[in-house]
Amino acid sequence: MKKIRIGSGAGYGDDRIEPAIDLINSANLDYIGFECLAERTIALAQNEKKQDPESGYNHLLEYRFEKILPAIKQHPTKVITNMGAANPLSAAKLVQKMAIDAGLKKLKIAVVTGDDVSSEIHKFMDEVTMETEHSLADLDKPIISANAYIGAKGISNALDEGADIVITGRVADPALFIGPLIHEFKQNYDNVDFLGQGTLLGHLLECAGQVMGGYFADEGRKDVPELWNLGFPFADFNEDGSIIMHKLAASGGLLSTETVKEQIMYEIQDPTKYFTPDVVADFSQVQVSQTEDGVKVTGATGHTKTGQLKVSVGYEDGYIIEGGISYGGSTAIQRAKLAGDVVKKRIDALKISVSELQIDYVGVDSLFHGVLDNTQAPNEIRVRFAARTSTLAAAGEIKREIEALYTNGPAAGGGVRTNTQQIIAIASVLIPESTVRIQHKFLEVR
Amino acid sequence: MKLLDIAHSRTGDKGNTSIISLIPYDDRDFETLKQGVSAEKVRQWFQKLGDIQVERYEFPGLRALNFVISNALGGGVTHSLNLDRHGKALSSALLEMPIKKEK
Questions:
Q1: What is the domain-level CATH number for residue A321?
Q2: Facing B48 at nearest CB: one of A268, A271, A371
Q3: pTM of the entire structure?
């Protein structure tokens, strides 16, 4: 039975590189996928590209490929990544230059484009956003980017034509892993059950360490060996659609039915309807079992895709000023609350223009807003302020009021830190897939 | 007994919606969770998060539940003023819920 072995090289933009290189060197991979784009990352990258037309790709691209290229020279492995972000072409040019310098030969680097729909988004301003129940037009904020989550087709087409490295912008995360499957098993995009199981593979691999005991460990109940040395996962995808998840014996972490179940269910709403550009996957009947070989995962199916693509629209959303000050001792909470009260009254008295103010007591209610009772007063409390303003000047006034708590606030406050950020927020809308034209081109190393 | 004695959990987010799994360590406790942890009970447990709605989904093959809690995250990760903008820690709050074990 034919099988394809795929590794996971990254679960987010700034993820570690060592576990990925370990897989290339030791796991006998056919492919490795690096998922490096969070929802907001591409909007920030579009902003960078506006400043410098050669930038706008993942900041760690060069750092990663310095290590990836020598490894794949020794152990040929095809690399699929969305590290292109807002500028896959410039990313590919850099990788091409690095590959030549590293002495690689006969390498085809594919660039997949078509996700950038910023020139089309004006047609969809009346679409209601998924986050706000308002239309894009109602948001009435400056739009800076619009990128569609495109499917795997650009990737599989590039592989059909001999690509060794595929660099994309925004694609649906599972597409990085479905592309190789479609290519290798010579499948069509109308085999929905194959795509359903392929989506499950992508879902299991796209968060890297999170299926290997990362985001899992809880001493005594969920012990994870050598968490500091957490490995990334790899999987065999068999011709019959079954998936066997694996871990390198030499790496730390834990691969078990428990870690796999947590990751299968991660961020899934209705399990019968997991919407992707290529298929509506159905994870409701998925089964997991421990075998001698690894953790076996079967049972995902699919329904025909909707024909609509999700688009992340980046928009300027004013500023968030955050700041904090700490109090200690058995009366810490009283002084912390007094500090909160002082800043709140100052903002009112000075009529500082703030659209939202939140005051949390870290150690008491900052995570759960009172969902859990706190019966014992801790000996250390940090007051945390967070405010949304439309201007930098207003954010600055609030910053100064937090700092003023040193000499003008309750006794023995310490450790003031503040941080002001211009906010790029994301609104999501659906557009017809006919809006995008997925293309690919090659840069070659001879 | 608390949920954390018989189950584990992971939180994810989509926009302003938090998604919290509840997975028994022992498959035989799945019935206990289905009987004892309704969507309404979870809504009441988390009501201090604001005007939330809760849907419960079953994964019969995995013998586990997902709770999908909308309007829980202060506008979602790119907008929220919360310290934990993703609501990553919410699974730990769910696991503190008391539960009676079925005999």
A1: 3.30.70.100
A2: A371
A3: 0.96
